[in-house]
Request: fold
Amino acid sequence: MPAGDAADRGSSAETLAIEPDNGQKTKTGGDEVPEQRDLFVRAQRRKLPDERESVTHKFAIGGHEGYIIVGMYKEGAPGEIFIKMAKEGSTLSGFMDGLALSVSIGLQYGVPLKALVDKLTNTRFEPSGFTENPSIRYASSVLDYIARWLGGKFLSAEYLKPRIDLHEEPVSKRAVIADASSAQTRIPSSEVGDAPSCSTCGMLMVPNGSCYKCANCGSTSGCS
Reply:
């Protein structure tokens, strides 16, 4: 074999070297292959035992009923929550399932319950309104009710008291009652009481001729 061919083959073999540890190819010219590194130490997930104590709480906000199920560690701290509300497969039900899963994972990885509760309180969206809980008479949203109930149950009774947003004017009790009275004037209570929930978004439907229509997404109960 000519000496020149052997030298060429030797130089080409040195160009790409296979690392024995990770199997990646590197160049001899000094270029390093970038590696992904963990910048933070990952927290360890603390799972609940197979058998654990739990608390089930039933609630109703603006005619929408639901259940909160909290699984606890041996010392009584919450480690997971389940939220069942509205029709299975609806938008509201799917949203609540995702929220419960996110909160449960956060609790098991060591996120303080107070941090989660403080972020969710005073959120405003429908459904909202008066509740059947004497400790939480009015909730601005489902998230507001769930957060205040969790805070009052596992943190402090201060979370059960009405809070005032510093960026907004306080809402008087008279204004809340006036809004409820005007809503009852627009839609007769006898008709709304028998109205079904929307199968798409979970909102309470309103009468529309001989059927019902959802004021939120526009779905109907079967009328054309």
About this structure: The first strand starts at residue 16 and ends at 18. The beta strands are 16-18, 25-27, 54-61, 64-72, 78-85, 129-133, 136-139, 206-208, 211-213.
